[in-house]
Amino acid sequence: MFYQQPFYFSRPVYSITINRSLHKLTLYRDSIVFKNYPVAVGKPSTPTPVGTFRIVNRAINPGGPFGARWLGLNAPNCDYGIHGTNNPSSIGKDVSNGCIRMFNEQVIELSNLVSIGTVVKII
Fold this sequence. Notes:
mainly beta, L,D-transpeptidase catalytic domain-like, eight-stranded mixed beta sheet, two-stranded parallel sheet, 1 helix, about 10% helix, peptidoglycan L,D-transpeptidase activity, LD-transpeptidase, cell wall biogenesis/degradation, glycosyltransferase, transferase
């Protein structure tokens, strides 16, 4: 008799790298580039922190300038995150208070893929 091992689906592992100087967020799926998104980052007086962090909280429609989604990072004071924007003309610029801004439709897409604990490297 032929015995076949059960087939298990494994969830893909996502990670994110944000390049501040290129204003680009790269989403990796199982260590392979999956998507690239344009972003806005912190202005010189309130720069986006550099380092390796994790997504620690999330919100749908957080309101105000945070657009359609909030993905909070365990960066200093937990005051930083990846979020949408109510000012889409800011994408591609150094204008935020340190957070990473994305177009609302793109942050929704990203939020649907990543989970709490996803590694976010900011360079």
